[in-house]
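Objective 1.3, modelling of assemblies. Example input:
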Amino acid sequence: MKRNTRFMNHSVPKGFRLAGVHCGVKSDPSREDLTLITTDSDAVAAGVYTQNVVHAASVKQNRAKTPFDRFRVVVVNSGNANACTGERGEQDAREMTRLAAKSVGATEDQALAMSTGIIGEYLPMDKLTAGITAAKAQLGTDSTAFDSAVRGITTTDKFVKVASRSIEMDGQSVQVTAMAKGAGMIGPNMATMLCVVMTDAALAPTTAQRILSTAVDESFNCMSVEGHMSTSDTVLLLASGGSGVQLAGPSADQQLQEALTAVCVELARMIPTDGEGASHLITIDVKGCATREDAHRIAKTVADSPLVKTGVAGADPNWGRIVSAAGYAGVQFDVSQLTLSINGTLVYENSMPVAFDDAVVSASIRDNHETRLELTLAEGDSSIRYWTSDLTIDYVRFNSEYTT
Amino acid sequence: MKRNTRFMNHSVPKGFRLAGVHCGVKSDPSREDLTLITTDSDAVAAGVYTQNVVHAASVKQNRAKTPFDRFRVVVVNSGNANACTGERGEQDAREMTRLAAKSVGATEDQALAMSTGIIGEYLPMDKLTAGITAAKAQLGTDSTAFDSAVRGITTTDKFVKVASRSIEMDGQSVQVTAMAKGAGMIGPNMATMLCVVMTDAALAPTTAQRILSTAVDESFNCMSVEGHMSTSDTVLLLASGGSGVQLAGPSADQQLQEALTAVCVELARMIPTDGEGASHLITIDVKGCATREDAHRIAKTVADSPLVKTGVAGADPNWGRIVSAAGYAGVQFDVSQLTLSINGTLVYENSMPVAFDDAVVSASIRDNHETRLELTLAEGDSSIRYWTSDLTIDYVRFNSEYTT
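Predicted structure (tokens):
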């Protein structure tokens, strides 16, 4: 089988139609706040959701449905997360789902819903009802429809987040196109990450769930902004089968897996890049661990350390903050073999500081958007790559200057 | 047995002599940077240490010695943590210990050492040698000696942290006096918390260790500034027996336990109060948990959330940030029974927002140094009280503006 994965224009995979409209959840009439994505016939949907026990009503409902093979439509509103809204919130989420289903001639069990925005407020159901009707009337497959749908899921995003891959399988083309939003503060309440991945491959629900979970494990689950898990984080994979390509065998699965993971990684890097006030994307490689879980714990602990994050913001090659953060991740390791490099410069080797030119490393942090930290242990062969943003004065300003 | 615990002047318990001097680890000659605390005869010492696998040489050596009953002296230097300094750092820590022991006519195994300050630099052993000799010459029991010793363990502390209790046992007085430092940024490298508790009660080593561990569990282990665990955190309990009071029986143990816990809690509250840039002390009560560990995880997760911390800095009664942080602590609980109050005002009850006057609650945060959050679950009877600081622009400024 020929491997031909390349960048494409972000075209809508076959079998999907979509639209984004403004219906009034956001106050600015120029901003879309409702997106509808529908398939021409029954499709497969898989999902990965926030692990927060305090989660939005729609998360609970979607989780109960996926993976399944009768998917027809998902509605997303931005500006109101419908989280922490109790029984009425659950009723509203069901009604929103029912309205979306009805708009495309499907049943409630064929529809999903997502909400992102301020928490603790009830959804304006009259506006959503009108919005779903309006979006239904504008469903399309062109770039105008696609762009409006992408904007309709955003909140405080400074740029839209889209990635795609096209793969050829036995002479036929399969498209994977995804949109994501977040994680910026919303409301100013919550940082939510939403992502919808569309593909026109034909997949079984269990296969869809497996490749989505794998892709998320290597992308969105290896990314944090401030380590505060949202009530609403959701990644959906929708497979329309519109390409006519039915995946057959491990090789085809692997090919789609690679494309899906690549798309998710590309989006996962965009989210901390767009973190509130962020001036750097920090990429953390942790290598030589006994297990991937150990590597993940170390990387996440380093990523969430305010001292590491402020150090990068200040272009300070402060290795002490990084190795000490690695040390309190709850992972036992041989400290005498711990090694760290910053932007490719070795700064700490086998538990001893290495002489290096502070000014050069500091300049490499200051002058580049991405800062690369590489921690190497000697416990095994497991590794991970993790992304986060730095912590700047602007972050604190954004998140503290609001007063009710 | 009469219970009579009250505030006292911070007198030095019987059987201790101490001093603080400037020996040149810190550049400012007006600031003490070395403290010596010695007992007149063999005493009991117990310790609780950082769980960071990346820890200072002295932590490793102290941990191997305590608890024991032949203690004679502890030397503390501030300005250099002797952490991440490899084999030479271990040799230096041993030499520092040996010099302190020799100065009071004891052996190395009777001495402990602590270091706090910048990491990754070698100790200036000539300066420490002279400093130990100078401190030995100034050992005393009066307030001048005590105050210099207290200052000698500080780094960027804006105020010294001292607490004491006097208890009466069978007509005799037992004194508990403690000093602590941190956690402010040092260097600007690391936030280290050090504490030395002195008592003139006579204790068995196992008893000393038990009551110290219990006190730390309810105080310093329930406190964070930014959640970054230091390489050097150490709490020592030194019991000279100088009061002539030998603890006998559970009631006496309990009386001393209460005094020790009270002293440690008093100091634990001072540390986030003195956090870099902190404008609020945040006290988090988590109640109704299945286990104390669950309550601890929830409290720590709320305490370490940058969104919660910036919200308090901005006097924002943002309950969504708080309940969502509770939700991702990794503890399963019935969300429908989650309740939160801020400064005594109910804002979220049984998973539903409660109408409250935002302006009043915001003012209660803005106008008071302490912000009290109370989260109530319905899983059991376990609870915890936890302290942290808020996250301000000044914190980020302090920790990012340094460039090498």
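Residues 16-273 of chain A form a domain with the L-amino peptidase D-ALA esterase/amidase fold (CATH 3.60.70.12).
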